[in-house]
Amino acid sequence: MTKAKRGNGQGTVRRLPSGNWQWTITLGMDASGKQIRRSGTEKTKSEAEKAKAQAIADHTRGGLAAPNRVTLGEWLDRWLASRESEVKAKTHASYARSVRLYLKPYLGSKRLQEVRPADVRYLQDKIRGAGLGTDTQRLALGALSMALKEAVRLELITRNPAEAVKVISDRQKEGRTAQAWTAEEVARFIEVARQDRQGMVLVFMVSLGLRRGEACGLRWANVDLERGACRIVENLVTLEGKPHISTPKSANGRRTVPLSQEAAALLRTWQAAQAEERAAMGEDWQDSGYVFTTYKGTPLHPDNLNRALNRLCERARVRRIRVHDLRHTYASLMLSRQVPLEVVSKQLGHSTPAFTLSTYRHVSVEEHSQYAVNISDLVNLSTSFRITN
């Protein structure tokens, strides 16, 4: 039996009668004064030396005690916990959902250090095989890639296997999620919605291009009717079916939005109605400070606007769209009226005008047909056609 020389704080590596190599290291003392010891067995001396060195490195940076034994599921749990204070609550909930529904069920039991690109492709095939689309793939693979990238940074693995697998687009579904109403459809919708309590909120949103969470999260303290402006500084989003206060998606999302005369008039009408409701409720009124509230003064549940929009679409006899498509509609109508792209982008709180143009430009069939220009008009040529053999 061979025993390597013990160095100060370097641990030992020795050969066992079985032919395997055992490594042992003392990493200091815990809070109770007890020695912190780590050990393991490998097939070769070099592997034992590497495992011992890894244990030292992990202890130094507060890492995992035995990274070679950690499963992907265990690492994902640790990664999620570390991200909770670094990202918005809705983003963290999205990560957690992908981990719970896809990553852990399909790959969770696999050792972290043994995950390969083929395993990630297997995950992708399972997601697609379940009939789930590109967005689900992107969210699941994105969360996995970020978790594995962190493992690379901490030297738990040498490369990120998720980077070798690309999202497979479902071309049949591309371009069908985002829709925009025509000007005629918007007019029919507003005619009906402005007579409905929740419809007023939807009219306000399509008038300014606000996100659902931005409208629901608007407080009177951030509205200046005299100056005709409102400040977007808070979102009211839905997490696990419950309203949750969040902040704008980006620095550009935190912005001041000018109020049109009609939007300001809508808010004044709402403010007067809310004052009557406050008086009628008396001590039962809950002063939440939000602009758009229930009859009792509590914040509107964002999900209720989805149901309200479906109901009002049927009543107005217009195409059923998503609440977020009201924002698409606003942007498309503004751009079709030649409002400067930079102005529209700033109103929407986008990072760049290029993003606005690529994401929210929806050209109607009528507008598109106007640009079916004769080639003869472009080249100053009188053109007639005659087929000869």
The CATH superfamily of the largest domain is known as Intergrase catalytic core
The secondary structure category is mainly alpha
Query: What radius of gyration results from the CA coordinates?
Result: 30 Å
The CATH architecture of the largest domain: Orthogonal Bundle
What is the domain total for the residues? 3
Largest sheet: 3 strands, antiparallel
Label the overall shape. elongated
Q: How many DSSP helices?
A: 15
Q: What would a concise description of this structure say?
A:
With 389 residues, the protein is mainly alpha-helical. The chain has 15 helices and eight strands. It has a three-stranded antiparallel beta sheet, with helices on one face.
Write up what this structure looks like.
This protein is mainly alpha-helical and 389 residues long. The protein is 47% helix and 11% strand. It has 15 helices and eight strands. Strands 1-2-3 form a three-stranded antiparallel beta sheet, covered by helices on one side. A three-stranded antiparallel beta sheet has the order 4-5-8, with no helix packed on it. A hairpin with a 5-residue loop joins strand 1 (12-15) and strand 2 (21-29). The longest helix is centred in the last third of the chain and has 21 residues, at 261-281. 25% of the residues are buried. The model is unreliable at 1-8 and 171-176 (pLDDT under 50).
